[in-house]
Amino acid sequence: MVRPELLWQEATHWLYNARVLGEEKSRILRLSDLAAILRDGILLCRLANTFSYGCIDQTHIFLQPQQSQKSRFSCSNNIRLFLDACRTTFHIPESELFEENDLYDLDDFERVLRLLSHLSHTDKAKKVLRPFPAVCSPSHVSEHSDLYSNLRDEVEAVEEKESIYDAVYNYGKEESEKEMQIYDTIVVNSNARISSKDAWANFKPSSQREHCIKELLDTETNYVENALDMILAKFYDPLRFLLSPEDMEAIFINIY
């Protein structure tokens, strides 16, 4: 049985060795630090692409460089992308997956760590890195610990200190449900889910506010597709296996 207080530390080292953690690793001093960094799902998507390049379309990931932008809508999108990759690319059983709220709401962060451990033991991941814990399978990881009991409060305290604007984006349950209803209306039709890109292309603004929103999003979308996506695909991803994390951070500063 793996001691729970060591599991999150092993996960941190494993993520660093996978080169999805750069300068963030120096900020991970407690379990709550790791939970806060993983909460938006961005690093998890990068992790999946590390073991199976292109299994998650980069243009579908909502990049959020600021803590204040961690809305449920964006984070849930990224978490779903990661979970879908675990199902379809890494063939991890449904019973081993966590729920979105286990990570975003931190209802069961230990379950998140167990999934990362399970992912590390898949064939694709083991070709790149040694799994964790190396001494046993994910099923032998401790299933409960008081270490996680106050995790949500600790993470929210950390994020509140990092940005004075967090209160604007700290949606309650009612607001979260409204966001998901908006998402379903825009992105999902009555029969099948369509891509957010196609949904936005068909969006017709009907007010001055919506025209402003569309102009802003169109500008950002073009920037991502024509510049950032090219940099990630042609330079960042190939070089991350050749350069040290420090060199990657120096060259690609502000991209991740």
From TrEMBL:
<dbReference type="GO" id="GO:0005085">
    <property type="term" value="F:guanyl-nucleotide exchange factor activity"/>
</dbReference>
<protein>
    <submittedName>
        <fullName>Uncharacterized protein</fullName>
    </submittedName>
</protein>
<dbReference type="InterPro" id="IPR000219">
    <property type="entry name" value="DH_dom"/>
</dbReference>
<feature type="domain" description="DH">
    <location>
        <begin position="208"/>
        <end position="256"/>
    </location>
</feature>
<dbReference type="GO" id="GO:0005737">
    <property type="term" value="C:cytoplasm"/>
</dbReference>
<dbReference type="InterPro" id="IPR001715">
    <property type="entry name" value="CH_dom"/>
</dbReference>
<dbReference type="InterPro" id="IPR035899">
    <property type="entry name" value="DBL_dom_sf"/>
</dbReference>
<dbReference type="Pfam" id="PF00307">
    <property type="entry name" value="CH"/>
</dbReference>
<feature type="domain" description="Calponin-homology (CH)">
    <location>
        <begin position="5"/>
        <end position="124"/>
    </location>
</feature>
<dbReference type="InterPro" id="IPR036872">
    <property type="entry name" value="CH_dom_sf"/>
</dbReference>
<dbReference type="GO" id="GO:0016477">
    <property type="term" value="P:cell migration"/>
</dbReference>
